[in-house]
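Lab notebook, bench 4. We co-purified these components, and the gel suggests they stay together. Before we commit to crystallization screens, I want a quick structural picture of the whole thing.
Request: model the full complex, all chains together.
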Amino acid sequence: QRLKAAVHYTVGRLCAEATQDSGVQLSKQTVAAIAEVTFRQ
Amino acid sequence: KDWFLSEEEFKLWNRLYRLRDSDEIKEITLPQVQFLSLQNEENGLTQEPSRGTHQLSLSEWRLWQDHPLPTYQVDHSDRCHHFISIMQMIEGMRHEEGECSYELNIKSYLQMEDVS
Amino acid sequence: VPQELVSKLLHLHFKDDKTRVSGDALLLTAELLKVFVVEAAIRSVRQAQAEDLACVDVDQLEKVLPQLLLDF
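Here is the predicted assembly.
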């Protein structure tokens, strides 16, 4: 659980930083999906 | 200095990113890709997602794959362009009736005298 | 991406516990993960913008995912 939290938090912060000017929010499910795909890769 | 989240970060994760049991989607998985024609014993049948788990699909939106989607810092690879051209061909073939343009195209290279 | 987190994740996947990772390799892996995550996020956002959505959901990511995976 802690490792998953660390991964999701890290991915979430990166996504937020990268998309902050777009005016579009990423849902937490999308963040979880990007984390899953990233670390599965 | 280690990989743990600090208390503050943990609270932020808990508020912004944690998937809860009360959420419709509680977990996201990327299933192992399987080719129907290469059903090997090792994988056996595809695992049915448990309740509340969303299995990411690479084929759900296949109609979207007939054109290159916008990129950001990483351009499309050659194999991606190849994939898009195959999806375009499949899409084209789906709408054909009667003769198949792909077959007509390939047949023009056929030299019967070469067939022993 | 914190290098300690990258190191932890890599060691989860190493078959041999004695495998070691150099600092440069960690740095590079962290950078690759960052590039992948940012690319996934921004492509998903652009898909949501194309659909006039204010929020990116898993559907938008799934639409860009096949080409994203083929590009890495």
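The beta strands of chain B are 27-29, 53-55. Worth comparing against the SEC data before the next meeting. Chain B is about 30% helix and 5% strand.
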